[in-house]
Amino acid sequence: MGGFLDKPKTIKHNDSGEGNKLLYGVSSMQGWRCEMEDAYYARVGLAEGLDEWSFFAVFDGHAGCKVSEHCAKHLLDNITSTEEFRNGDHVKGIRTGFLHIDEVMRKLPELNQNAEKCGGTTAVCAFVSPTQVYIANCGDSRAVLCRQGAPVFATQDHKPILPVEKERIHNAGGSVMIKRVNGTLAVSRALGDYDFKNVKEKGQCEQLVSPEPEIFCQSRQDMDEFLVLACDGIWDVMSNEDVCSFIHSRLKITNDLVTIANQVIDTCLHKGSRDNMSIIIIAFPGAPKPTEEALEADKRLEKQIEEITREEIETHQITDYYELLQALQDRNIEGLPPGGGLHAKYPVIERTFKELFPDEKCEFYEFYQML
C-alpha cells in the first residue's frame, strides 16, 4: 500500500542495547515509500519478576502508521498483564494479549476516524527467557532463528493464498483476488484493519482478516547464534538462508549489530526492495566473534573490488555509473559476502567511481529506475 518517492529516503533510525547475555541492534529506513509505516520495540529485562526476560517486536503498518505505532507502545503490556501470562501459561497469554489489543484499538477514535479505510499492521515478536524463545507472528513480517550460519526455524507468512487462510476468508464471505483479500489487502492476518472484521455472525478469529497470532516455543541451545525479526521489505529480496549467511559472515568482522543491521538494509535496497525496511538482530552468546582472518579477507576483497572497478572503467572507457554496475555484475568475483553478493559492496564501487568522476552522479537508485 502507499505510493513511491522519486528517490529513496536512506536515513536510518538505529537502536541497540545489551543485557541478559544478549546483544541487539536495530535499523529502520523509509526507503522508497511515501510514508514510514514501520515501528519496533526492544527491551532487555522486563518488570514484575521477569528481569531475565527480554522482548523484541517489529510492526509493518499499512494505510498509515497509527496502528503500528500504537502496537509498538502497548502490545507488551497487553500480553504481560494477562492472567495466563502471569500464571506461567505464556503461549495462551501471548494469544490473549494479541486479541485484547485488537479489540481495544477498535474502540479508539484516533485509530478509526476513517471507517472506509482503517489502517492495520503486521506483527512479529519474541520473548527471550533464559531457557526458551517464544515467537509470535501475525501477518508477513517474519522471525528467523539461526544456528551455525543457517536458519533452523522461521515463521510462515500469513498470505491469503495459503489454503487455511483462503478457507477462512471464503467462510467469512470474502474472496482472494490477485493474491489479496477481496483484491486489496496482501496479508490475511493483521492487527487493526477493522473494515475487514465486520462479519457479525463470525468470531474474532474467523473474520476476513484475523488478529490471531501463530505462536512457537523454541528451546534455547548453546549453538543458537542470533534471531532476526524483520518486515517483508527485507524478505522480499533476501531469503531466510541469505539473511542468516550474510549476518553470520558479518559477525566475523564486527560485533556492532547496528552496523550489520544497516548493512542488511542497504543490501536489500541495492537488491531492489521498494518497501519500508526494519530489522532487529538479537545475538546470543553462541554468535560468531570477529577474527583477524575474516577482517583481513574482507579488506582484501574490498581492495580487489576497487581494482576491478578501476579496470572496468579504464578498459571499457566507462563513464556512466549504471553501465559500471551492470558490467561488474557480470564479473565473477570470488569471496563476496554470502547472501549479499556484490550488492553488499556497492559502497566500495561508489567510492571508487566518485574518486575518478567527482562531478558525475552515482545514485544507485537511478540504476533501478532504468531496469
Automatic annotation (TrEMBL):
Membrane topology summary: Lipid-anchor
Cross-referenced PROSITE patterns: PPM_1, PPM_2
Domain of life of the native organism: Eukaryota
UniProt-listed InterPro entries: PP2C, PP2C_BS, PP2C_C, PP2C_C_sf, PPM-type-like_dom_sf, PPM-type_phosphatase-like_dom
PPM-type phosphatase domain ranges (all copies): 23-284
Keyword hit for Phosphoprotein: yes
Entries under PANTHER family matching the protein: PROTEIN PHOSPHATASE (PTHR47992)
Family the entry assigns: Belongs to the PP2C family.
Name of protein: Protein phosphatase 1B isoform X1
Organism: Glossina fuscipes
Gene: LOC119634738
